[in-house]
Structures are given as C-alpha cells and as structure tokens.
Amino acid sequence: MSLITAKNLSKAYAKGELKVEALRDLNFEIEPSSFVSFVGPSGSGKTTLLNLMGCLDKPTSGTLMVDDTDVSELNTRMAAAFRGRKLGFIFQDFNLIPVLTVYENVGYPLLMVQNTPVTERKERVLALLEAVGMADKKDKYPDQISGGQKQRVAVARALVTNPKLVLADEPTANLDHKTAYMVIDIMKKMKNELGTTFIFSTHDQKIVGEAEIIYSLEDGELTSVKGVEKPC
What is the pTM (predicted TM-score) of this model? Predict the structure, then answer.
C-alpha cells in the first residue's frame, strides 16, 4: 500500500488580480521506505508540493493521501498533531529556535510533541548529535554556529522522532561535500533500518544520485519520472 497518493492535485494562489497555478493536476504514488527526489528549476512547484505533503498548506483541488489520511481534510489542530506523530522536516532556512541550545533544539520535538521520557530523550538526542558531528556543540546557541552546522542540527531534529516520513527542502545546500554525504548516509540507514521514507526537493546531484525515484517538475507539472531499481 502506498504511503502517499496524489490524484489530480493542484494548488493555485491569488497574486493581486492574477491566479498563479503552482501545481497542476499531479498524479503519483510513493511507497513506504523510499528515497524520492523532486527536481526542477526554481518556481517549478517543488517546495509547494512539500508543504502540501507536510500539512503546512492545503490543495486547491484534487486529493492527497498521506499514510491513509486525506491531509486536505485536516483542520489546524489535527494537522499539527499529524505532523508531530508522522513527519520530520528539514528546512532550507533551518528554522532553529534561537533561544534554545543545539541540544534543546534537537530534543524539542521529543519534549513538546511526543512527551518522551527524560532518559530516552537524552540518549536519542546525543546519539544523533554524535552522528551528525555536532556533539561538541550541544551547548551552543544557533547564532554561535555556522550555517552548515545549523543544517546538521536541523537534520538531527528532523530524525530524532523516528518519523515515518521526512520532507527535506534542499537539506544539503549549506553542507560541505564530506558532511553532505555523512548526512545522506544517516538518512539511508534510517530508511533501511526503520522503513523511513525520505522526500527531497533539491538541486543537489549528491542526493539525486542516491534517489530511487526522481520526479521532474516544470511550471507546476510533472514532466518525467525516472525509477532506479533497488538492489536485491
């Protein structure tokens, strides 16, 4: 059974007197435990699509099922609860909380959304900070670390809840070559061991090269789908 199913999915915005069609009649299915990239030029609709899948916005028409839930029917409270239970996000602009330390930023979803016990929360946060090479910066604040380090913290925060689905908007954009591959390896390990599905909006060929399915978007329309066979 598919984790995500889009049928005639469209999204339009009003811009003054103009109607801007960000997405037009998209149809696709994404299976559980997948590594998927949506690629295309700026303005093609990639980020808009991630926002719809992440319950941060609603489609204008069509249906979007995520884990057997029609996310377009969720109200604000239900959407927030759904995100907390099912989803992890990696934003291009990090979205770290400036008054919290690196450790507190990563642990925030476990505390505020999942109410994870203290001992387990500490173990999971420290393990992921170690995995992304940020354990020695755990007591720093976001304005005391570099852009690349902030991105690593954002990755750790997205993965700490062991979500079923991770939505990542240019997750390696601010990382050097070595760190980018380290982060990709962490994601692949989660996919293989926990069955996590990762969906990327990206221009980065390092991620595109690891994807099992590549959807190309242009002017809000799917123009091609490239499937990469999984190893037996």
Answer: 0.87
Which of these, 72, 74, 47, 53, lies nearest to 4 by C-alpha position?
Answer: 53
Structure tokens at 165: 């689905």
Partners of 218 in the β-ladder: 221
Please name every residue paired with 213 in a beta bridge, in sequence order, or none if there are none.
36, 227
Does residue 232 fall inside a structural domain?
no
Of the candidates 51, 1, 68, the residue with the CA atom closest to the CA atom of residue 199: 51
CATH label of the domain that carries residue 208: 3.40.50.300
Residue 141 tokens read as 């604040």
Instruction: Report pLDDT digits (tens) over 187-223.
Output: 888 888 889 999 999 888 888 998 999 999 999 999 9
Q: Distance between CA 128 and CA 160 in Å, rounded?
A: 7
Distance between CA atoms of 128 and 109, rounded to whole angstroms?
Answer: 14
Q: How far apart are CA 135 and CA 76, in angstroms?
A: 35
Q: Which two tokens stand for residue 176?
A: 């050097």
